[in-house]
Amino acid sequence: MPNLFPMTDEMTWTDITDTDALENSRAVFGRSWRYDFGAGEFVMSPTRKVAIADEKSAWVVWCEKAIRTPRYRHLIYSRGYGSELEELIGSSYGHAVQESEIQRTVKETLLADTRTASVDNFTFSWNGEACHFTCRIRNVRDETEIVESVVI
Asked: 126 pairs with which residues across the strands?
């Protein structure tokens, strides 16, 4: 009977000892479609096809989408995808507590992706009970971007 797991001379196993190389090898950057969160629709090219985002832009779109998607609400997403910012809506906590929870929740949401290295530099502005915030995100390639005006 033939072997289900054939071994050939071309198959070699190497041990990776550098932890940075190991972390970067797990981070898969891919392409995606560009999305305009303000308009709530995909960005179209002049030929009316959905515009393609490069690897960094695709990661930024993923970050914004993960922040805006409520966790556990949609069966199509895994239990690890999305944020729990919706739980803060209508809470009786003060602004300082809500800002702390926003920071914790956003960091937890974005650091779940192996492409994200850090989330920091939060700024908050309040308009009544609505909170607008921005934060800086950095990926494992040391590229940074500002996620702006996500409203809860």
From this structure: 131
Sign of CA dihedral 103, 106, 109, 111: negative
Question: Which one-letter amino acid corresponds to residue 137?
Answer: I
The answer to whether 48 touches 31, Cβ cutoff 8 Å, is no
CA distance 8 to 31: 33
Q: What is the pTM of this model?
A: 0.76
The widest CA-to-CA distance across the chain, in whole angstroms, is: 73
pLDDT tens, residue by residue, 25-49: 567 788 888 988 888 899 998 999 9
Q: Output Rg (C-alpha) for the chain, integer angstroms.
A: 20
CA nearest to 58, candidates 20, 79, 28? 28
* 67-87 tens-digit pLDDT: 988 888 888 888 888 888 888
According to CATH, what is the number of the domain 29-151? 3.10.450.40
CB atoms within 10 A of CB 64: 17
